[in-house]
Amino acid sequence: MRNRTSIYLFTVPALLVLALFFVHPILLTFDMSLTSFKGIGEAKDVGWSNYERIFTRDRYLQEVWVTLRYTVIVVSALTVTGLFFATVLHRLPLIRNFSRAALYTPAMMSFVVVGYIWQFLYSPINGGINVAMRDLGLGAFEQNWLGDPDLALYSIAFTQIWMFTGFTCAIFLAGFAGIPEEIGEAGRLEGASPWQSFWYLELPLLGPSITVAVILTTIGTLQTFELPFILTKGGPDGATRMLSIEIIDNLFGQYKFGFASALSIVMLIIVLAVAFIQNKLLRERENVT
Fold first, then answer.
1. Could you list the residue range(s) of the whole structural domain that residue 73 is in?
2. Rg, Å, the chain Cα set
3. Tens of pLDDT along 250-266?
4. Residue 283 belongs to a domain with what CATH number?
5. What DSSP state is assigned to residue 43?
6. Which parts of the sequence belong to the ABC transmembrane type-1 domain (predicted)?
7. Could you tell me where the DSSP H helices lie in 20-127?
């Protein structure tokens, strides 16, 4: 009993830090979301009107939909591409370290730097992508990558996928490192092809890595702000206006602190709900496999 009490006491500092820097700010934000505070003066209590405005206007519901759609695109692609490169590098130990470092380099770059680089590449006139297509005789495939409402969201998503493929690849490589070599040897002795070894032996054992990769990339993508802001500022025609951009615009552009706080609480609920559902489903999948 004494040892158990000592263990609980050791958690007190961590719980205090969590309460001070996480729970307390959330409570203050929720309290502000029930007001019409504009940064100065007295905060007037408006009840649930900020939340009613969010859920009764198509504009904000559309932004939630754009955020979720963008997240599905990015997380799905990052999981597949990261797993692909990790699988290839796992079988090529001679180039593994160099390739892993090269793939991870974009993730260490600033969002601002990456955003402006790809803004130049996507430029419809002299951008690197369209110029390369003209030089290769593929001028018919030139696009206004950031100016077309049907393409802009996918263009931004591709930039984030390019940036963080190395991150998910590193997670899966760590998962591969934890698979006993005896399992691969047993598969080869049974005559399993490389594809069969991956699908029936390695992939089920990568369940914990898949869970970590999906949850981390989902949480990060739901809060994405820098890339869509730099590349399109939410345009064209609101096609890339995500919830994070709306929050910043209301907070620092229109000084609607109360409404921005309500949007932030809605985003927090979405992030927690999605992460909880993903964790539950993926953990169940791990137990089944």
1. 58-288
2. 23
3. 999 999 999 999 999 99
4. 1.10.3720.10
5. P
6. 64-278
7. 24-33, 49-56, 58-90, 93-104, 111-121
